[in-house]
C-alpha cells in the first residue's frame, strides 16, 4: 500500500543530521520545468503563483540560482507546515525511516513523485499553478500519467492523503486493477459534517505518523486510526472513500 501525501509551500534547506539517499525519479523532467521557470519575469511568476510581490521576487531569485544536484536535503524533512509538524519525521527512528522510504510517497508539481529520502532543493511550484509551454497547457498535461504509472509499478494499492489538486492527477487514470482509497477528515458542527482546512492538514500528518509507527500496510488497519479524536465512520464511507469524523462544540 503506497501512502500518498502532498508538499507544503514552505521548505527548509539546512538539514544536517541526515543525508539524501537517492535522486528523484523524474529529475530530467524537473530540469525541463526549471528551464521554463528561469525564463519567467517577476511579474509572470507573481501571476503564475498568485502570490505577493515579495514572494514573487524570492521565487524568481531562487529559480535563477537553483542547482538540482547540490545542497539537497531528504524530501520528507524538507517541508514545513501543519501537516509536516504533526507528522514529525525529524524524531523518527531508523526503523521508521526505513518503513517510510518503502511506503510513503510525496507528490509534487515540480518533482512529480518523491521518495522520502530523495534529495530536493527549495522550490515554489504547485501542481495547479498554470505553467504553460510548448504543447503543454498546464502541469497536469506535462506530467500526464507518469506520476500514476510510477506509483503503481510495484504496488497497486494507493491510500490517498493528498490535497484535491493532487488527487485529480491520480483519479483520472484509475482502473479496476488498482485499489484506491481517499481519506477525508470531517468535523461535526451544528449537526453538519464538513472539512476544515487546518484540521485536515493536522489529521493527514497524524495519520501518516500512525501508519509509520504502527507499520500499517492494509486498508482495514487504516480504519483503526483514532488520532486527534477522529473515528472511522462506516455509515458515511464506501470502498473508495474513508470518512473520519469527530465531534466539535456547537458554534454560538
Description:
The protein has 252 residues and is α/β, with parallel strands linked by helices. The chain is built from eleven helices and twelve strands. It has helices at 27-38, 42-49, 53-65, 75-78, 82-87, 94-103, 139-143, 146-152, 164-171, 197-213, 219-222, and strands spanning 2-5, 10-11, 73-74, 79-80, 104-108, 112-114, 119-120, 157-160, 179-189, 192-194, 231-232, 241-247. The strands form three sheets. Strands 1, 5, 6, 8, 9, 10, 11 and 12 form an eight-stranded mixed beta sheet that branches. Strands 2-4 form a two-stranded antiparallel ribbon. A two-stranded antiparallel sheet has the order 3-7. Helix 2 packs across helix 3 (53-65). The longest helix is centred in the last third of the chain and has 17 residues, at 197-213. It is globular, with a radius of gyration of 18 Å. The protein starts with a strand and ends in a 5-residue tail after the last strand. The relative contact order is 0.16.
Task: Provide keyphrases for this structure.
globular; 252 residues; alpha/beta; 37% helix; two-stranded antiparallel ribbon; 11 helices; 12 strands; 8-stranded mixed β-sheet
Amino acid at each position: 500500500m503506497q501512502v500518498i501525501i502532498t508538499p507544503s509551500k514552505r521548505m527548509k534547506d539546512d538539514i544536517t543530521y541526515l543525508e539524501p539517499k537517492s535522486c528523484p525519479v523524474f529529475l530530467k523532467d524537473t530540469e525541463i520545468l526549471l528551464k521554463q521557470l528561469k525564463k519567467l519575469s517577476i511579474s509572470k511568476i507573481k501571476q503564475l503563483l498568485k502570490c505577493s510581490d515579495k514572494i514573487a521576487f524570492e521565487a524568481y531569485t531562487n529559480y535563477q540560482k537553483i542547482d538540482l544536484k547540490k545542497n539537497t536535503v531528504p524530501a520528507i524533512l524538507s517541508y514545513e507546515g501543519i501537516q509536516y509538524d504533526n507528522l514529525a519525521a525529524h524524531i523518527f527512528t531508523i526503523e521508521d525511516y526505513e518503513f517510510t522510504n518503502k511506503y510513503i510517497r510525496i507528490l509534487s508539481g515540480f518533482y512529480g513523485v518523491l521518495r522520502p529520502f530523495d534529495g530536493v532543493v527549495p522550490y515554489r511550484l504547485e501542481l495547479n499553478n498554470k505553467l504553460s509551454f510548448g504543447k503543454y497547457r498546464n502541469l497536469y498535461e506535462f506530467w500526464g500519467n507518469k506520476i500514476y504509472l510510477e506509483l503503481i509499478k510495484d504496488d497497486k494499492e494507493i491510500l490517498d492523503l493528498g490535497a484535491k489538486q493532487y488527487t485529480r492527477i491520480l483519479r483520472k487514470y484509475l482502473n479496476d486493477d488498482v485499489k484506491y482509497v481517499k481519506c477525508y477528515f470531517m468535523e461535526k458542527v451544528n449537526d453538519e459534517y464538513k472539512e476544515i482546512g487546518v484540521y485536515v492538514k493536522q489529521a493527514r500528518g497524524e495519520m501518516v505518523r500512525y501508519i509509520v509507527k504502527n507499520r500499517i500496510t492494509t486498508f482495514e488497519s487504516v480504519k483503526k486510526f483514532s488520532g486527534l479524536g477522529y473515528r472511522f465512520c462506516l455509515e458515511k464511507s464506501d470502498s473508495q472513500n474513508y470518512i473520519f469524523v469527530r465531534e466539535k462544540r456547537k458554534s454560538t
